[in-house]
C-alpha cells in the first residue's frame, strides 16, 4: 500500500457521480484506496466508450453528410473545407475539450495525477486549435487562389507569416503552461538570451525555418525525386529532418544535405512530371543536309503505300495542285511553285506515327519540329510525353520509337548524319582511286 500512498488520494471527492460509485464500492467492503482505483478505472472505461461512440458517429454520419452536401453544391468553399480537413480538425478539438472537462471527474481521487494530465491536455488543446486554425487558413488561401483578383498575389507568403506567428504564440503558451510562469516573463527572458541562442543554435534555427518554409510551400515531400547537381543529388527523398534532408541516389548511395539548402539553392523536383502521368521525350535525329531533296512522282506514289502517310500525301497533293494552278507555275523547274520534299514527308510520318503510338500521351504536348541547321546536319526533334513515368518504361518506349525511325528513314531517301559518315569515306576513297 506504500506505492498507492504516493498517488496522494483525495479524502473528500466532490463529484456526485464519482462519490456515488465510490460509496458503492466502499459498501462492498473495499478499502478507500482500492475503491478510488476501481472507481477511476470504471469511469475511464465508460469515458473511453463515450469517446469512441462520439468519434464513430462523427466519421460515419457527420463526415458522410458533409461530403454529400459538398458534392451537391456548386460553391467551392465547402469543397476546400473538406480538402483541408477542417471538419476532422474540428471534431478532434471537440474530443480533446471533452476529455479535458471529464478527466478531472475520472481521476478525482488522484489530485497529483489529475494536475499532470490536465496540464498535458492543455498543451494538446493548444495543438489541436493550431491545426484547426491552420486548416482554416489553408482554406482561405485556396478560396483566394480560385479568385481571379488574387491569382497573381503572393498568398503563400502571407500564409507563412501567419503560420510562423501562430507557432510562436502556441510555443510561448505551451512553455508558460509547463513552467507555470507568465508568458510575458518568458518573452522577456527569451529576448535577453536571443543573441546567445542565435549564435549557438544557428544551424538549428536555419533548419527550423527551412522546414517550415518547405512544408508551407509543399516544395519537397518524402518520396519526391529531386536533382541538385551541385551536391551530387539525383534520387528520392527518404527523410526530411530539422537539420538535414536524406536522399537516396539512383546508384543507391545516400546523400545528406542541410535543410536550409533547399531554400538557398535551386533544385529540380520531378513530382510534377510524376503527377501529370507523362515523361518527356526530347531527342533529335540529325539529318544529313545533302540528302534533302524534292521527290519525284514515282517516289511519292511509292510512299503512298505507307498507311499512316497516305492521307497526308493525298491532302498535300490537292493543296499543291491548287496552288500551282492558281499561280500558273512553270513546272519545268522544280524550284518553281510548291513541291513535296523527302524531309517534309518524313516529318509528317513521324508525327502520324507518334499520334498512333499507344505508349505516347496524346493529351500532352506532341511536336515534331526542325531545329536550326548546324555542322551536324538538320536536327529533327521529337518532343512528346510517354504515358507512364517509370524509368524502364520511358527508356523502352523511346528506344522503340527511334529504332523504328532509324530503320524507316532510308525509305524517304534521307540519311542520318554521322561524323564522318561511312558512305562519305567510301566516296572519298573511290574518288582518290579514280584520280590515281
From TrEMBL:
Name the InterPro entries for this protein. LSM_dom_sf, MscS_beta-dom_sf, MscS_channel_2nd, YbdG
The record's subcellular locations are: Membrane
Instruction: From the record, give the transmembrane residue ranges.
Output: 35-54, 94-114, 120-137, 158-178, 184-201
Any one cellular component term from GO for this entry? plasma membrane
Question: Keywords of this protein's UniProt record, alphabetized?
Answer: Membrane, Transmembrane, Transmembrane helix
Q: What is the name attached to this protein's record?
A: Miniconductance mechanosensitive channel
Q: Name one Pfam family in it.
A: MS_channel_2nd
Task: Please give the chief subcellular localization of this protein.
Answer: membrane
> Which Gene Ontology BP annotations are present?
cellular response to osmotic stress
Q: What is the lineage of its organism?
A: Bacteria, Pseudomonadati, Bacteroidota, Sphingobacteriia, Sphingobacteriales
Amino acid at each position: 500500500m506504500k506505492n498507492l500512498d504516493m498517488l496522494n488520494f483525495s479524502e473528500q471527492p466532490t463529484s456526485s457521480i464519482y462519490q456515488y460509485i465510490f460509496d458503492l464500492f466502499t459498501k462492498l467492503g473495499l478499502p478507500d484506496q482500492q475503491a478510488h482505483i476501481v472507481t477511476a478505472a470504471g469511469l475511464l472505461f465508460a469515458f473511453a466508450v463515450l469517446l469512441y461512440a462520439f468519434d464513430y458517429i462523427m466519421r460515419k454520419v457527420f463526415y458522410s453528410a458533409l461530403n454529400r452536401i459538398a458534392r451537391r453544391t456548386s460553391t467551392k468553399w465547402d469543397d476546400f473545407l473538406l480538402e483541408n480537413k477542417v471538419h476532422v480538425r474540428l471534431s478532434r478539438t471537440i474530443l480533446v475539450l471533452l476529455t479535458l472537462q471529464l478527466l478531472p471527474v475520472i481521476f478525482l481521487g488522484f489530485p497529483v495525477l489529475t494536475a499532470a494530465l490536465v496540464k498535458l491536455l492543455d498543451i494538446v488543446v493548444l495543438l489541436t486549435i493550431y491545426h484547426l486554425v491552420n486548416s482554416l487558413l489553408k482554406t482561405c488561401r485556396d478560396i483566394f487562389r480560385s479568385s481571379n483578383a488574387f491569382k497573381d498575389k503572393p498568398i503563400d507568403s502571407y500564409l507563412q507569416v501567419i503560420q510562423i506567428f501562430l507557432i510562436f504564440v502556441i510555443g510561448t503558451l505551451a512553455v508558460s503552461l509547463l513552467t507555470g510562469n507568465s508568458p510575458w516573463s518568458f518573452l522577456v527572458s527569451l529576448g535577453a538570451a536571443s543573441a546567445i541562442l542565435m549564435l549557438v543554435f544557428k544551424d538549428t534555427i536555419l533548419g527550423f525555418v527551412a522546414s517550415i518554409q518547405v512544408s508551407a510551400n509543399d516544395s519537397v515531400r518524402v518520396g519526391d525525386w529531386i536533382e541538385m547537381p551541385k551536391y551530387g543529388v539525383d534520387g528520392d527523398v527518404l527523410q526530411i529532418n530539422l537539420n538535414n534532408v536524406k536522399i537516396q541516389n539512383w546508384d543507391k548511395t545516400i546523400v545528406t544535405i542541410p535543410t536550409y539548402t533547399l531554400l538557398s539553392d535551386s533544385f529540380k523536383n520531378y513530382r510534377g512530371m510524376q503527377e501529370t502521368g507523362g515523361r518527356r521525350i526530347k531527342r533529335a535525329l540529325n539529318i544529313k543536309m545533302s540528302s534533302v531533296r524534292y521527290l519525284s512522282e514515282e517516289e511519292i506514289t511509292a510512299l503512298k503505300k505507307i498507311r499512316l502517310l497516305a492521307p497526308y500525301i493525298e491532302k498535300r497533293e490537292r493543296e499543291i495542285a491548287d496552288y500551282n494552278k492558281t499561280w500558273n507555275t512553270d513546272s519545268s523547274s522544280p524550284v518553281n511553285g510548291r513541291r513535296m520534299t523527302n524531309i517534309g514527308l518524313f516529318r509528317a510520318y513521324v508525327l502520324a506515327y507518334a499520334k498512333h503510338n499507344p505508349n505516347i500521351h496524346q493529351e500532352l504536348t506532341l511536336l515534331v519540329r526542325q531545329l536550326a541547321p548546324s555542322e551536324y546536319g538538320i536536327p529533327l526533334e521529337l518532343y512528346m510525353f510517354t504515358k507512364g513515368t517509370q524509368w524502364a518504361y520511358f527508356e523502352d518506349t523511346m528506344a522503340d520509337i527511334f529504332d523504328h525511325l532509324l530503320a524507316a528513314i532510308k525509305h524517304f531517301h534521307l540519311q542520318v548524319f554521322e561524323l564522318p559518315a561511312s558512305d562519305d569515306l567510301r566516296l572519298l576513297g573511290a574518288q582518290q582511286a579514280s584520280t590515281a
